[in-house]
Amino acid sequence: MMCERCGKRPATTYVKRTINGQTTEWHLCAECAAAEGVGLFGGFGFGVGDLFGGFLTQPALRSAGDAVRCATCGKSFRDIAESGQVGCPDCYTTFYEQLRPSVQRIHGKTVHAGKTALTGTKESRIKEEIEKLKKELQEAIERQDYETCAVLRDKIKELEDGRHDG
Amino acid sequence: MMDKWYRTVGKHGDVVMSTRIRLARNLEHRPFPRFLSKEQRQEIVEAVKDAAAAISGLPLHFVDVATLPERERLALVERHLISFELANAPEGSGLLLSEDERVSVMINEEDHVRIQVMSAGLDLEGAYALADQVDSALGEKLHFAYDERLGFLTACPTNLGTGMRASLMLHLPALEEQGAIQTLENTVSKLGLTIRGSYGEGTRPHGALYQMSNQVTLGISEKAAIENLNGIAVQIMKQEISMRQRLFTQPEFEDHAWRSLGVLQTARILTYEEALRFLSTVRIAAAGGVLPSPTIETVTALMSDIQPGCLMTAAGEDMPPQIRDRRRAAMVRAALGRAE
Ligand SMILES: [Zn+2]
Ligand SMILES: [Zn+2]
Known about the structure:
The complex is a heterodimer of chains A (166) and B (340).
Chain A: E1 13-19, E2 22-28, H1 30-35, H2 48-52, H3 59-62, H4 77-83, H5 89-94, H6 96-107, H7 118-142, H8 146-165
Helix pairs in contact in A: 7-8
Chain B: E1 16-25, H1 38-53, E2 61-63, H2 70-78, H3 84-88, E3 94-97, E4 103-107, E5 113-120, H4 124-142, E6 146-147, E7 151-152, E8 164-171, H5 173-177, H6 181-190, E9 193-197, E10 209-214, H7 222-248, H8 251-266, H9 272-287, H10 296-305, H11 308-315, H12 321-336
Antiparallel strand pairs in B: 1-5, 1-8, 2-3, 3-4, 4-5, 6-7, 8-10, 9-10
Bound molecules: zinc ion (2 copies).
């Protein structure tokens, strides 16, 4: 069999891509495979459709409504089910109950174990808060409002101490 | 100058070519990249660049993939630094890269942020530690989308949880020769891993290179996933080595190794596939002492350098395949020395 891309060299590589249930198959020569970017490590992720496009086959989900929409990206659950694509991180919270069976099917589990984002996020939020208070403190000093200064200093100290304890 | 990681040989390098850790992350309250306009994507690129600039002790420089010639984009794909998708549609996306190219951050591929760390040889713990550090530093500034139940929230639900894909590139010519790969595939899939040839599915891959990765990301910690992958890799390594020992006692293999080296040292035209096939044989023969030279380092560097995009990028010009094949043969002869 000859390469389906250049037609010049014998096909040595079989490439199969599934995107939303649409499977395309190619027989390529080595050069064309490389040119198509079928590198040593292959794709970085897995095609969304591989596991998620399977939504459409579930009749209960095909009738999914448009009544509720994600506040961040505006997608309804029907949009997600039809495209096999989640719109934004907040979709997972908005449509948690509807998405959970698919998540279970993919991973076998539905509860995260591992690194949490909370440590980093909390830390950075405290830092932001301290920076904000320091700015207010500067303004208070400038207008010689020493009462406010004292309150702000206490607050900053409290946050900084808390940060170092944690 | 610092040598690029992919031209070096690491721990258990005779079987494990490289280790890769990839973390998928997204910014809070923003649609995933495929639903963003070019301007919105650009905003995210800038935010990630700013956050990366604040990481102390790890300078990452920005590569505007959209402005690169096609051959250089292909070379980035071949070196596993960007995906084929990003190489093809680079507008409003980008790449941050450390000098030794071990650390890279893809911006606006499928997810807003994809942190990747590569290591030569078997180094899951080391690569994860570095990826974790970059993740925490970026997360400090960027506030990654996270849910207590589902973990890190990713564009594709297959990455929910840790968002971590850990992969090993294995060189398994002896197991392949024994026809043991199919059994291996079945076994590792029961253990939550996948193994596949370096060229798509269902075919005998070039150079006997196989990628093994964790499949599940939700409900398993990074540490457990890595330990699982590592444990199975060690088993496979043992099997491959014992198969090689058996192979090395056969006079036919010694002959085959010398012939392979002979072709590489004398050929005037070498396709990528052909070169990789012979290099694969020479690599295990060199590692096992069947051939006195070249070193496994030389062979490993060549396996990377002879890829079409890398070859054209090094030459600084595009070349049709026929010219490339001649250039490749010359490059291999120069590296391995011509047989007298
Ligand atoms: Zn072709
Ligand atoms: Zn949404």
